[in-house]
Amino acid sequence: MDPTEGVDGYTAEGYNNGFVTRVYPDGSYAWTVTFGQGDTNGTAAASGMGVAPDGGILLTGPFAGSVDFDPGPGEDIHSSPWSLDAFLTRLNGDGSYAWTLTFGGDHTDYGYAVGTDAEGNIFLTGTFLRTVDFDPGPGFDWHTAQYNWLGDQFVTSLGPDGSYHWTHTLGVLYTGGPQLAVTPGGDVLLVGMFHETVDLDPTEGIDEHTANDDPDVTNGADIFVTLLHGDGSYGWSRTMGGVEQDRGYDVAVDPYGNIVFNGYFRDTVDFDPGDSVDRHTSVAQNDCFVTKLRSDGSYVWTASAGSVHRDYSEYVAVDPDGDILAAGGFGHLTDFDPTCAVDEHEAPVPFSYTLFVTKLLCAERDGDYDGDGVIDLGDFSHLPPCLTGPGPTTCLTGCDVFDLDADADIDLTDFAGFQNALTSP
Q: 0.90 exceeded by the pTM?
């Protein structure tokens, strides 16, 4: 597992085993721990990972058979007698073992993604079939899936120590669990895909959304983004999609509270979930997209790229400067620059699956358009074209350097702020 010149070898026991490897920021190797050892029929795989505020590591995924989740000399064996069950494991920051919780019913259930808020409370998503008790402690919280042929989706909240808080479930959201992100304020964002008509409010209220997919299109689906508050109460949902299959894969939150999510789409999609329109049309089959929303769910922008083959944007992250990193795979000649410029890349083997990482630069909101360290009339010359008033502005044009109040609108408030920031004639 050591990617440097050293050696740190491991041998899997049973079927699949999970692992966690830590690499320091300079690329040097730290350590690896493995889990999933058990009887010859035991298997475990980590499909999601999060980091707690104290540096603890949270892992979730499916397991089957009897599995020892303690990677150290001790044992903590959990069994899934029927099919796949979900697990949540916590490791300490040095890789030592803390605890594991498991839950599931008599069919396929698995954890998909995990994250924490600033207080260390844990949020976990995944899918389940039939009936499951989601309380991993001595209590009970039974939920029954609405549609067993696909499975329902769940989001579960736990305390930092694994104590149980609540679970909400959502039906008819298609295969694959939703990805999640937790905002600085402790709200939980879910992104994924759905079809038919879905009530995206998992509480006692109703917020129904109907997919635009064509009934004659096999596996048609639309994209959803849902916000839940940390106490489990409902916030809002936004949906978008066309007649084909469109999917949200991953979600992140930037330093200003804006929401960024990515995925793929096919054919023509209006990505603006509000009253305005922002249509994007795929080159041929699946194209990649990255969409930005404000913290209240209002629309900012979408960038898209694709080739004549199937292209997927599966992971997204935002760095401390607000710049966006998206990763996935593409299959043919693709222009990855969503602006008027061109940055074309060709897959080494056409119609294969070649990995990519794309960075979209979102400038610091200080008014210094030309980046010379001085806010002056040279910067001012670029401000008028960016004054849009209410409506989308984007880091793709460089205009958000003038978004001094970080509300994703360049307006007269920012103009006044820029005047105050002028440092030279």
A: no
